[in-house]
Amino acid sequence: MLFGREQELDALAELLDGARAGRGALVWLLGEGGIGKTALAGAVGDVARERGMAVLRAEADELERHRPFGSTASTRATAPSTAPRSTST
Ligand SMILES: Nc1ncnc2c1ncn2[C@@H]1O[C@H](COP(=O)(O)OP(=O)(O)OP(=O)(O)O)[C@@H](O)[C@H]1O
Ligand SMILES: [Mg+2]
After folding, report:
1. pTM for the complete prediction?
2. Quick count: other Cβ atoms within 10 Å of Cβ 39?
3. 43 near 5, Cβ under 8 Å?
4. Which residues have C-beta within 8 Å of that of residue 52, sequence separation ≥ 6?
5. Number of separate domains in the chain
6. Could you identify the atom of ligand 1 that is nearest to the CA of residue 31?
């Protein structure tokens, strides 16, 4: 449960609507350590999942800073388990 982030969540949920309509967006969440960036990103991910969207998650790790495309590789690693099940028609 996030407190006091209704405005931010509404704005991000609107961007999800845009993404569904073909207007993708890149969002930077900036703020001091512990202010709630990861928590907010997680909450947006939950909203997207509730809407049936696939959510990929990757984390950059200080220890991996010299690994080329480290977080991209990490995203790919999570993809199979986080993608929605395919439906046959
Ligand atoms: N709006 C909020 N309501 C309730 N709990 C929150 C809120 N924002 C953050 N928290 C909690 O505070 C803690 C720190 O938040 P979080 O890890 O998201 O911060 P961060 O900005 O990502 O920090 P860092 O810069 O270190 O990555 C977490 O336990 C998180 O669940
Ligand atoms: Mg964080």
Report:
1. 0.83
2. 14
3. yes
4. 84
5. 2
6. 21
Is the Cβ–Cβ distance between 8 and 40 less than 8 Å?
yes
The ligand whose atoms approach the alpha carbon of 8 most closely is: 1
Please classify residue 11 by burial: count the beta carbons closer than 10 Å to its beta carbon, then call 0-12 exposed, 13-18 middle and 19+ buried: exposed
The predicted-structure confidence for 14-63, as pLDDT tens digits, reads as follows 999 999 999 999 999 999 999 999 999 999 999 999 999 999 988 878 88
Other C-beta atoms closer than 10 Å to the C-beta of 67 total 12
Residue owning tokens 């199979």: 80
Q: H helices within 21-85, ranges in order?
A: 37-50, 70-82
Query: Domain check: are 61 and 48 in the same one?
Result: no
Q: What is the number of residues in the chain? A: 89
Instruction: Answer yes or no: do 23 and 48 share one domain.
Output: yes
- Give me the domain span that covers residue 81: 56-89
Residues with a beta carbon under 5 angstroms from ion ligand 2: 37-38
